[in-house]
Amino acid sequence: MTATIFSLFGAFSVNAYSSPDAPSGFVNDFAQMMSASARAQLEIKLVQFEKDTTNEISVVTINNLGGDTIENFAEKLFKEWGIGKDKNDNGVLLLIAKEERQMRIEVGYGLEGALTDAQSYWIIQNIMRPAFQQNDYDAGIVGAIDKIIAATKGEYVPSQKPSAGKTWNLKSIENLLFFIFFAFIWLAAILARSKSWWAGGVVGAIIGVILIFVFSAVIGAVAILILTPLGFLFDYIVSKNYQKHKSAGTNFPWWIGGFGGGRRGFGGGSSGGGFGGFGGGSSGGGGSSGSW
């Protein structure tokens, strides 16, 4: 049962990232979206920028995301190549997916203060998007890099926040699902061990009251009417099952905190670049995404 549940939730979390290849320089035009001259000139500019500042900017175009989200792809690629210096995390990735018509600016930890999410969003919406809609990829990419360089140098770059309704993506939904899932287990484990079964109803009512302030009185009232009896029923079921297994001396079900075994840690670290230009930096997920 436990394995089945985790396999179902694992389906949401496993994205189809596939490495495009090892980097051959700062500009990696795998999708052949740039002209040869623009690509060569931009490479020279980024090489010199790295020498002057140690900051590393990588431009990557790919044919498609292979079913992945551009946010996850950018984060995985950033980590795989190790863009930026190891201890400074001063890298920036400009990723463009040709078939999905999406782009993302992924910013390393060390540059998030200089190149903000709002500035990244402005660059995408006001520099890249208009140029890409005219199929002028050279102008969009070079213009974006110029603004990114300016921001990292402390020069003024306008900022713009995404409008409401554009901030949700697959990764946000995944995080919400995992939060709900583990919150459910945590709540079930607590309520199952309580001596009274009415506490679940109280929790449901409290959630409804919170929704009044978050959304509206109507939504909150409806939530109270629904969640209060469901809370009573939920508490009754988990408490009854807990007492049953406790009396029998058997293992508790997964949904009332019955996971067994030791804890496993997660491995860390990120790989450096294959061509010698990247220094093993990492990203914290900062930046912005857009489409054209």
UniProtKB/TrEMBL annotation:
<keyword id="KW-0472">Membrane</keyword>
<feature type="transmembrane region" description="Helical">
    <location>
        <begin position="197"/>
        <end position="215"/>
    </location>
</feature>
<dbReference type="InterPro" id="IPR007621">
    <property type="entry name" value="TPM_dom"/>
</dbReference>
<keyword id="KW-1133">Transmembrane helix</keyword>
<dbReference type="Pfam" id="PF04536">
    <property type="entry name" value="TPM_phosphatase"/>
</dbReference>
<keyword id="KW-0812">Transmembrane</keyword>
<feature type="transmembrane region" description="Helical">
    <location>
        <begin position="176"/>
        <end position="192"/>
    </location>
</feature>
<protein>
    <recommendedName>
        <fullName>TPM domain-containing protein</fullName>
    </recommendedName>
</protein>
<feature type="domain" description="TPM">
    <location>
        <begin position="27"/>
        <end position="150"/>
    </location>
</feature>
